[in-house]
Design goal:
Two copies of one chain form a homodimer. With 236 residues, chain A is α+β, with helices and mostly antiparallel strands. Chain A has helices spanning 23-31, 36-43, 50-56, 62-74, 96-99, 102-112, 126-136, 185-192, 198-203, 213-220; strands at 78-82, 90-94, 147-153, 156-163, 166-171, 179-183, 207-211. In chain A, helix 6 crosses helix 7 (126-136). At the A-B interface, helix 1, helix 2, helix 6 and helix 7 of A face helix 1, helix 2, helix 4, helix 6 and helix 7 of B. The structure holds a DNA duplex (20 and 20 nucleotides).
DNA sequence: CTGTATCCGTGTTGATACTG
DNA sequence: CAGTATCAACACGGATACAG
């Protein structure tokens, strides 16, 4: 009687499900736990190792990261894979379906960009910046523009290709970019979203630019931010 | 000394922020707590009272609901409003910006509809069903169709209007619908998503249909579900 | 009737230290 | 490097009591 601990909970309550047929609620059952979506964000541009993930998310602790990776693997969102020698490392990579979650991040990002409480001076991960470019890109602003920009962020290099009113940004090195930008994600974000003049960032040693500066300046204007929503106590 | 409870936590850790400039991470700071998004879902079709919210989310407890409402109000996502007499009730309603969160639910819903683990036999809230119609509507399937359907779900009535390859579904009564469907959300979902024949649902007393049945049958085909993603242990 | 506040058992989270 | 172990703090959910 004292041992009749109700361990036989409907086993659906185990992982604390919402018990709701709504697909959005099910999505939250799968990826609604703390950190789960940020782990996915960090994998959206390609596989990473355990320690890469930790480095990209300073706030997460090792045990929680382990739990999330297990949960996401069980859900079919990611898989672990052993790289063959000589790289001989274990990496985590999203499944096809996992990669299809990107629209979730775009919807979240677009919506929260209007938040009155958003503080853009916080630490900015490399993946966040690259994904934000895909999200905030304005086809209208890019009318008639065609260019290739190399972005060197830390030890990673990305290539942004703008053409026909569309953009692609991926992990890749480019042979002959029109311009190259080197620095950390915060500074690049300052130039693109914060309106900080490139010259100022260069003078501060935060960014290094080379190649066609006019193209670079134009590139910075392709990612307009939406207007802020009224703060909580506003009129109406 | 016993009172030196560390209340002076960096005040940024108080509400357990991700401390990340990424807009998507900020979105999760605002609405990433358990139940927060479901509360928003329940308000997306119009204001509700405290007890309506509880009824729509059987799993949430009163104190947690209070906390979420406070948090979402502070974030500027919703506001509380007192209805004038004789209704004299307090309702919660999304702000303009709050209503703009609908794409988040669509992205979540579309993605999770492919989940191998999704169980559509669970309880289904009225709001979930209506929002899913907006989400899953296929303009291609609706080519050439123009109709007005009344949906009576519990004590709420909604009107779906299909025209020009678009759909609108709202809380509203319609004077002269082409057809009327009455029943609970589960049964309507069975007809639309589960492929259960209307006649069977009527025979079981789960649904009542009236008006143009051909239009109704056609209406049921406008909301195709995506293919399931492979289950966790799949080949590749 | 519509919430709000408080207590309490439990599970989740997060920091630190530690192991293969 | 890739996790596991331990433990304290907190969040969640249920029950109950209380206030307008």
């Amino acid at each position: 009687m004292s041992s009749e601990k109700i361990t036989d909970k409907p086993e659906a309550v185990r992982r604390r499900s919402y018990e709701d047929a709504c697909a959005a609620a099910h999505a939250l059952d799968l990826v609604g736990e703390r950190w789960a979506l940020l782990v996915m964000r960090e994998l959206l541009l390609g596989p990473k190792r355990f320690s890469d993930l930790r480095a990209a998310m300073p706030g997460i602790s090792a045990n929680v990261l382990t739990q999330r990776l297990e949960g996401l693997e069980e859900a079919g969102v990611l898989r672990r894979r052993e790289l063959p020698p000589p790289a001989a490392a274990r990496v985590y990579e999203l499944t096809e379906w996992g990669y299809e979650a990107e629209p979730i991040f775009q919807a979240l990002g677009r919506w929260a960009a209007r938040s009155p409480l958003h503080d853009p001076t916080l630490p900015f991960s490399t993946n966040s910046l690259i994904l934000s470019l895909r999200t905030m890109f304005s086809p209208a602003r890019a009318a008639g523009l065609s260019c290739l920009i190399a972005l060197r962020l830390g030890y990673e290099t990305f290539t942004a290709r703008v053409a026909d009113g569309a953009i692609s940004v991926e992990r890749a090195v480019t042979a002959a970019p029109d311009a190259t930008l080197e620095g950390d994600a915060r500074s690049v974000a300052g130039a693109i979203y914060g309106g900080v003049p490139l010259s100022a960032l260069e003078a501060a040693g935060a960014l290094k630019a080379s190649g066609d500066r006019a193209v670079l300046e134009r590139f910075f204007t392709l990612f307009p931010l939406p207007a802020k929503a009224p703060a909580p106590g506003a009129p109406r």
